[in-house]
Amino acid sequence: MSIIIIILAFSIWSCQAVLENCQRPTLENGFFVPHLDIYEHGVNIYYGCNTGLKPALETWWGKITCRDGHWSHIPQCIDNTHCIVPHVPNTQTEDLRLKTSYAHNEELSFKCKSDFKFENGKSRARCENGKWTLPKCTRKPEFCAPPPRVVNGMIIQPYQDAFKNGDKLDYVCAEGYKLQGTRYTICRNGQWSNSPTCVEKSPCSRKPAVRNARPADELKTSYNHGDTVQFVCGKGYRFEGTDSAQCEDGEWNPPKCIDASLCPAPRVANARAAENLASSYSSGSYVSFQCDAGYQFVGAYYARCVNGNWDLPRQPAVDLAQFYANGRSVRFECDSGYEFEGTDTAWCVEGIWRLPECKRRGPHGGSVRPDPDVVPMPGGNCDTQPLIENGDVTDLPGGNELKAQCYKFYKLTGPETIRCVNGKWTELPVCKPPCKLDRTKIHTSHPDEYLQEGELKRFYCGQLWKIDISCIKGEAVYGECKYHYG
């Protein structure tokens, strides 16, 4: 029985860990309570510091714990004017190596976490007589106040009531002024970044000079931005473009006088050059052209330079849509004694008629060609189709009704359908002519720009400027060229 008890006791002892005691810690300029040589595992002891000193903790007394032969931390006494490492919410320290304590007037740098910023821009903590003067990180605001006003400038974005972080606003200056510095401002952390300024464009302090030309009037000693000076080319020369020099922000933009026998690059409406154009051509040079889709030349297809002037194609390019549009059709009746061989309809296919054929009832035959002005009607009491100036008509099912339509850009006014009643056509519509716009007043890539009667349209008249133009009784009415930012 005694042998079994000894074995069991040995087994229990071998399963328990042996936890070591702690030696008395060392503390300069301080004392412990209780004061022993050996402290068992788990025992807490308290310590204080001599006069003028304090524990390197946030309390005026310290506590350490024995844990398996080691103390929870090394006790230390520091000067009352020193500070231990502080805790600043929503920050991290920028110093790579932190000290146990910091002397009076020493500083420590901090960095705010993302989405936070320092109040008053202060990012450093200062130890002052044992207490820290700490920075403070607050959450960044989400919105900015209204943007800064720029004298003689304006914002080009549409108006808005609120501006959040990241919003960017662009500025432009009034006529006669230019941007200096950045062109925009950005809302960052509730504050606007540096905004631009608009300064007056510089005058031209020197007189303009143009080679092979003289000024039309006596020159002044100075000119403001935007002023122009007219010139006269010398004998045997002519202007290439404008005849005036313009002051542009302190520099002259002069005209150019070229040999009068040279021709500038030619232009033909509704056509393009067959090869790349040069800036000028000598007398006797030729330039070939190709029509745009839907147009064809009537006559020559080339231009010839003759002593500074172009001999352009004798007749302008003709819009095929002004006769019969591609895909349109016209029905016919054969003359007495003839009958159709196949269809009775002629079709316009890319400017060429595909015609029906009338053959005599018998051994002889014949063919017909369409007459755009007078086309016999199949049945009904009206002998011929009516004529509509600047328009045409097509048959509708039944034989006694026609559909009227106008040529390109012309506007149909009146009934679209015409009926044959008692041998006479009902009221005919009118095709009102369009208005051709002055290309010097608008920015457009088209060689010609038209508006239909009664139409109102807005065009660019500058990079950020627009103009409203309407067509009234065949005349283009131009509004004011105004600045638009929306």
UniProtKB/TrEMBL annotation:
Sushi domain sequence ranges: 20-79, 81-139, 142-200, 202-259, 261-320, 324-360, 380-433
Any one Pfam family match given in the protein's UniProt record, by short name: Sushi
SUPFAM superfamilies membership: Complement control module/SCR domain
Signal sequence annotation: 1-17
Localization of this protein: Virion
Alphabetized UniProt keyword annotations: Disulfide bond, Signal, Sushi
Positions of disulphide bridges: C144-C187, C204-C247
This protein's name: Sushi domain-containing protein
Source organism of the structure: Ameiurus melas
Taxonomic lineage from the root: Eukaryota, Metazoa, Chordata, Craniata, Vertebrata
